[in-house]
Amino acid sequence: MATAATAATTITSSQILHHTAAFTSEILTQSELRHHVLSTIRSKLLPSDQLALKPLNLAADTLENAISTTNATVQTSSLRLAQKLLLSYPESTFSCFLLSLIYSLSNQSIKSSLSLLQVFYLDPSLARSELAPTLFENLFLIHFLPVLQQFNEQRSKILSSFSTNQDADDYSICDVSVVIPCSKLFSKMSGDQASGLKEMERNYEKILDENCRGFVKYFQKVLENGDDGNRVISPPALVLNLKQIETEKVEEFDQYQEDIKTKELGLKNGRQYGLKEKMESISEDNSANSCSSDSEPDMEEKNKENALLEHREGQGLLITQQEQNQPIFGDSSSRSPDHLMADNGNPPGNGKHTPPKDFVCPITSHLFDDPVTLETGQTYERKAIQEWLDRGNSTCPITRQNLHSTQLPKTNYVLKRLIASWQEKNPGLVPNQSENLQNLVESEPMVNKPIAPSTSPNSVISQATMDRTINELRQAITNLCMSEILKESETAVLQIERFWQEMHIEPDILTMLSKPPVINGFVEILFNSFDLQVLKATFFLLCELGSRDEAVIQTLTRVDSDVERIVALFKEGLQEAVVLIYLLRPSTTGLMEMDVLESLLAVIKERNDDLLKMCVKPRTASVLLLGQILRINEENFASLVVSSKVFESIVSSLEAEWAVERIAAVGILRRCMQEDGKCRNFIADKANLIPVLESFMGASDEERFEIVYFFFELVKLNRRTFNEKILNIIKEEGAFSTMHTLLVYLQTAIHNQCPIIAGLLLQLDLLVEPRKMSIYREEAIDTLISCLRNSEFPNAQIAAAETIVSLQGRFTGSGNPLTRPILLKRAGLEKSYRNLMRLEKIRNNPGDSEDKSGEEKAADAWERRMAFVLASHEFGLLFEALAEGIKSRSAELSSVCFVAATWLVYMLSVMPDTGIRGAARVCLLKRFISIFKSAKDIEDRTLSLLAIKSFIQDPEGLRDLTSYMKDILKGLRELKKSSPLAFEIIKVLSEGQEASADMWNHKELVQIDSSENGEVLSIVSFKDKIFSGHSDGTIKVWTGKGSILHLVQEIREHSKAVTSLYILQSGERLYSGSLDKTTRVWSIGNEEIHCVQVHEMKDQVQNLVVANSISCFIPQGAGVKIHSWNGQSKLLNQSKYIKCLSLVHGRLYCGCHDNSIQEIDLASGTLSTIQSGSRKLLGKSHPIHALQVHNGLIYSASTALDGIAVKIWNATNYNMVGSLATTSEVRSMTISSELIYLGCKGGIVEVWDQKKQTRLEILQTGTNTKVLCMTLDANEEVLVIGTSDGRIQAWGLS
Q1: Within 13 A of 867's CA, how many CA atoms are on the CB side?
Q2: DSSP 8-class letter at 1177
Q3: Which of 382, 400, 427, 465 is most buried as measured by Cβ atoms within 10 A of its Cβ?
Q4: Distance CA 1293, CA 1270 (A)
Q5: pLDDT at 546
Q6: WD repeats: which residues (predicted)?
Q7: How many CB atoms lie within 10 A of CB 597?
Q8: Are 804 and 887 in contact, with CB atoms under 8 Å apart?
C-alpha cells in the first residue's frame, strides 16, 4: 500500500474551493453545458432510480427558474424550494449535483463543494469521464501519480511482447491522460495480449474509483476543518491493487457482522451474559437426512415451495434475471434449486435439523423477520442492511457490487411465507433470535390437525357437512397462501369470510387462520387487490383474528410496510381499516406520523350503516384513536374537531355501551370546550351525563380526573341558571352519591388535579344556601388553600388561583371567567367591559330583558354565597394564601391571585361585616398599595383602587391608608381623569384639613431668567410643551419633560410685545396677539413651531381669545372687537373698557376696568351684566385682572375692596355662590379640577382648595414682582408662571 507524498499532495480548503467554484461557475453561466451535463446524468439513471426522477426534474426546473430570474426574492424562494425538495429524497448523483449548484447560487461555497465532491463518491467513473473531467484532472489526478505510474508499468509489460516493428507512437504511454484508457491497439494485438490489457484496464478503473472515494472523504474533511483549523489532516493511503480493496471491504463487513451479533447476543465488554460461551455451528446442508424421510405429502408440499422459489415476479424475486434457475441465497454456484429446497424437507421432531441457509440472514445469522432482496440478488434482514447503509456503505455486503439506489425494496413476502411454513413444520427448532421471533406462537401444522366431530343429534349429516366445509376452508387457505393468481386468492378471502360469518368458530379453526403464512396471505391481498368487497372482507377477518389472538397483531406489526399499507387504505376511504389500526395499538407518536386525523373525523361524522358488523365499530375505533391524538399537546388538533363540527357527533358517544368510548369522548369534548368555548352550549344542551357518571366508579384515576375536568369545564356557561341545572344533574343523578365519591377521590388525587376536583365539589355543595358546617365545603376550600400555598407544585398553585377566580360564576360565551371585566366595570372602567362583550358577541337583546334580569339575579345570589364561604373560611385564611401568591415571582400566579383577592375584598364591602374585612386588610393592604404604585397597566391600578376603597369604608382602614398617602397621591392624581374611583378616593382623603394640606404640597422645580426679553406677558401649555410670550415680541418654546424646562426654540416675528397666547386644541394651532396690530397663527404639531398665517387686526391686541372662525380681542380703546378670519370686524360693548376676556361655548365674558363683569352672547349679540361696576375711589380704579369659567362657575379676580379678591358666580343665574377671602391683589388665575391658583402682586402664588374654598399653601417667587400669567400642564401636576421681571418659574405637586 502506497502513501501519498505529503509535500506534493497536501491541499488546503481554499484550493479545493477554488477548483470546485470554478467548475460550478462555469456550469451556471453556460446554459448549454449545464443542460448537457443534466441530460447525461438522466441517461445514466437505473430503472430503480426512475421513481425519484419526477421530483428531481421538478427540482432542476425550479433551479433553472432561479438562474434565469432577476428578482432576488423569486430566486431565493425558488432555491429554498428546490433545496427542500432534494433533501427530502434519497441521496443520488443527480440530487448532489443539483444541490451543489443551489448552494453555489446561495453563496454557500463550502456546502456547494461538499455536494459536488459527493458526486465523485457516488459515481466516480461518470464524474471523472463525462461530468467534470477538468475538475478531476485539477483536483484528483495530482494525487494519483503512483497509480498512473504503476498502470504504465503494467501496460508496458503487456505491450513489450507486441511486434517491435510497430511505431512507438501508436502505443506511447508517456502521456498521463490515461484517466479513461484507450483501446486503439486492441485490433493489432493477439488474443491473450488484448485480453490481458482489457483486464488490466478494468482493474485500473476499479482502483481509480476506490481512490476517488477515499480522496473525496479526505477533501470533505479538509473543507470541514478549514484553513484555520487545529487538526492536521493527512491524505489517505493510495490503493494500488484490487486485493487491498477486497481485504478492506471484507474486514469492514466482518466487523459489521460482529457488531450486529454482539448487539443481539447481549455482549458487554467482550463477554456474554446469559448465553453459552460458544454457539453451536449451524449445518449448511441437511439434504442427506431429508431425502430418506420425505413422505408423499411432504414432497408435494416441497414441490409447491420449489415452484414458489422459481417464481420471478411479484413482490419478492428470489431468482435474479442474470442467472436463470440459480438460487441467490448463500453459495449459488454449487447448489441447484432442487438441492436448495431439500433443506425444507427436514422432518419435524429431529432436533439436529437447522433452518435452511437461505432462510438465514448472512449478517445476523438469524431467521429472516423482514427479508428484502437487493438488486444484486442477495437477501438480507431489513434492519441489518439498513444499518449497513446508514454507516455510509453503498455496496452489497456479499457481492461488493455498487448499489445504484440505497432505498430498500418491499418485503420479500414469498420468502417470508416459506419461512413461516418451515417454522410450522419444525416447531422448537427456531434458534434464539430477535425479540419479535421469540413471540411467535408455536402450533401444530394447520393442514394436518383434525377437527373435532360434531355433537349434533344429526351427527352423520352434520358431520359430513362440517367435514366438507372444513375441507373447503383448508382449500381456501391453501389458495390464499400458495396461489400466484390474484383472482384465486381474492376468491379464497371471500370464502373464508363467508365461513366465518356462517359457522361457529372453534379454537382449532381460529388457530389455523391465525398462523403467520395465512396472515401474510391476507396482507398480500391488501397490497395487490383492487376489489372493494375483497378488501373489506380482508380487514374484517384480520380484525376478528387480531381481536382474538395477540400473535396476529405481532405478525402485522413486524413489518413497517404492512402497517403503512393498512394506513394508506384507510386514508383512501376504506373505513374498516380504522378498526385494524386501533387493534394494532400504535403509540401516540406513531399515530401522529400516520397523519390520519382527517380520515378519523370523516368516519366519526359519517353514519355509515352499510359496514360489516365487526368486533369494534369503525366509529368507536375512530373516537378512541382521536382521543389518543388529542391527549398530546404538541399540536392543537382540537380546533379542527370544532371547525368541522365533528364534536356534535361525538356527543352521542357519551351514551356508548363501551365505557372506554364514553371516557374518550369526554376527553375530546373537554379539549374542544377549552379550544373554542362556543361549542360548550351545544354540548351542555345535547349531552346525556348519566352514563358518564356511571363510568366514574369503574374508571382508573386518570379517567376519573378526565370526567371531573369535563364537568368542571361544562359548567362555565354564560347562563347561571343553566350552570346550576347541570350541577344539579351531576349532584343528584347516577347510581351513587357524587359528592361523597368526589370527596373520597379528592383525598387520594395527585396534587395537580386537586384544584379542579375541589372546585367542582365546592360548587355542588353551594347549590343550596350554605349551612353552618359542611365537610364537603371545608375539605374543598382547605384543598384550594393548601395547593395555593405549596410552591413545590407551581402548576397546582396557578390552577388553584384560577379555580377561585372562576368560582365567581360569570363567564363569557367562550367560557372565560368574567371576574376581571366585571370588577373593572364596577371600578368605573366600563369601556374595557363593553369591548370584551363586543368581542365575545354577547349582546343584550331587548326581548330578553326579563330573562336577563333573572339571570343577573341568579348570578348575584351565587356570587354572594360563594364569596361568603370563601372569605369566612377559618376567619379569612384564604386572604393569607392570596397575599403570598401576589408576592410570588411567577407573574402568572401573581396576576391571578391579585384578581381573586380584589374580587373577594370588593365583595366584603357589599356584605355585612363580620370582622373579616379587618383580617383581609392586614393581609392585603400593603400588597394593593404596592401594585398601585408599581403597575404600569391602568386596569391593574384601577383594580387595586377598588380594593383600597373597600378598606377605607372603616375608620381603621382610612387611618391605615393615611399613612400611605404620600405613596399613592401621585398615582391618584394621574388616574383622576380616567378613573372616577381615583377622584372619589382623593375626595375621601382630603376631607380633613390636615390630610388636605398633606395632599397638595408643592415643590419648586425650576426658575429661569428671561429678563433680556422683558416681561413675560403670556404663557400657555400644550401636551409636553410650554409657550411664553415676551414684551420684546419674542415667543419661546420650552419642553416640560422631567423637572427642568428646556428651551427648544426662540422666535421673534412680532415687532412689538406679545400680549396674548391662545391654543385651539382641535387644530393644534397657536394664536399670538401683539401690540404690532397683528395676530399670527402657528403650527405646533412638530418639534419646532412655524408661522402659517398673519392677520392684520388694525388695532393693538391687548388680550386675545379664539374660536374656530373668529377671534375676540381687546383694542387700545373701549369695547371688544370681534374679528372674522375673512377680514371683517365689529366693535361690541363700546361703553366699557375691557381688562380681561374668557370665551366658553359661544359666550364671551368680559372683566372691565370699572370692576364690572359682563356676558355677551356672540350668536345674538345680547349683553348681560353679572356684576355692576363701581365708582373710582380717590381716583383709583379696581379692574378685574383675571376671569376664568370652570364647571359652570365664573371666577373673577380683582383688588380686595372688602377683603374678598376672588368671587365665584353661577354662570346660569349669575348668583354669587362663593368667594376666596384673600387680601392680595390678584393679577392672574388658573384652575385645576381640585385647586385654584392665584398669581398675586408681591411675587406670591396662593393655592386654594376649590371645594372647601380654603387656602392650602402660599408659593414664593423670591422677588417683589407681579405674577402676570399662569398655566398648568395636561396632568395638572406642574404649575408654570411668568412675572413682570422676566422670570419663568415652575412648581410641581410633591
Answers
A1: 26
A2: B
A3: 382
A4: 16
A5: 92
A6: 1051-1084, 1260-1294
A7: 18
A8: no
* Predicted pLDDT at 1010: 92
3-state secondary structure 580-638: HHHHCCCCHHHHHHHCCHHHHHHHHHCCCCCCCCCCCCHHHHHHHHHHHHHCCCCCCCH
User: Which residues are paired to 177 by β-bridges?
Assistant: none
For residue 493, the one-letter residue type is: V
Q: Which amino acid is at 187?
A: S
Q: Which residues of the chain carry a pLDDT beneath 70?
A: 1-9, 46-52, 161-193, 229-230, 246-353, 428-466, 608-612, 633-635, 836, 839-852, 967, 977, 990-999, 1041-1043, 1067, 1175-1180, 1201-1203, 1294
The residues pairing with 1124 across neighbouring beta strands, listed in sequence order, are 1110
- Would you state the cell numbers that stand for residue 828, as one nine-digit string? 368605573
Going edge to edge, which strands form the sheet with 1157-1161?
1138-1144, 1147-1152, 1157-1161, 1167-1171
Helix (H, G, I), strand (E, B) or coil at 1091: strand
| Amino acid letter, 41 | I
Cα gap 532→1025, rounded to integer Å: 82
Residue with cell string 411467535: 440
C-alpha cell at 974: 394621574
- Distance between CA atoms of 1254 and 487, rounded to whole angstroms? 110
1279 to each of 173, 1014, 1136, how far by Cα in Å?
105, 21, 32
Around 21, how many Cα atoms within 13 Å sit in the side-chain half-sphere? 13
Backbone angles phi, psi at 632, to 5 degrees: -95, 155
What gap in Å lies between CA 557 and CA 1010, rounded to an integer?
Answer: 93
C-alpha span between 551 and 542 (Å, rounded)? 12
C-beta of residue 1030 within 8 angstroms of C-beta of residue 1013:
yes
Whether the CA torsion 735, 736, 738, 742 is positive or negative: it is negative
Distance CA 936, CA 768 (A): 42
pLDDT for position 545: 92
Measured distance CA(491)–CA(505) in Å, rounded: 20
Name the pTM for this structure. 0.56
Nearest to 1197 by CA among 1208, 1189, 1185: 1185
Contact of 1064 with 1108, CB cutoff 8 Å: yes
Rg (CA), the chain: 49
CA neighbor of 265 nearest in space, from 433, 500, 19, 82: 433
Question: 3-class secondary structure for 349-411?
Answer: CCCCCCCCHHHECCCCCCECCCEEECCCCCEEEHHHHHHHHHCCCCECCCCCCECCCCCCCCC
Which of 719, 723, 724, 727 has its CA nearest to residue 852?
719
Contact call for residues 235 and 10 (beta carbons, < 8 A): yes
User: For 822-863, what is the HEC assignment?
Assistant: HHHHHCCCHHHHHHHHHHCCCCCCHHHHHHHHHHHHHHHHHH
Q: Which amino acid is present at 815?
A: G
What pLDDT does residue 142 have? 82
Measured between its terminal Cα atoms, the distance across the chain in Å is 92
Grid coordinates of 1096: 392684520
DSSP structural state of residue 458? S
Q: Which of 480, 418, 474 is nearest to 450 (CA)?
A: 474
Determine the 3-state secondary structure of 1246 from DSSP: strand
Give the separation between CA 292 and CA 346, rounded to whole angstroms: 10
Distances (CA, A) of 578 to 533, 563, 569, 601, 1072: 16, 11, 9, 11, 84
CA atoms within 13 A on the CB side of 1120: 30
pLDDT at 1148: 93
Please state, in angstroms and rounded to a whole number, the distance separating the CA atoms of residues 1186 and 1206. Answer: 9
Beta bridge pairs of residue 1193: 1190, 1210
pLDDT of residue 819: 92
What local confidence, expressed as pLDDT, does residue 342 receive?
A: 33
Grid cell listed for 1176: 373710582
Measure the CA–CA gap between 59 and 66, rounded to whole angstroms: 11
Phi then psi for residue 1213, to 5 deg, are: -110, 0
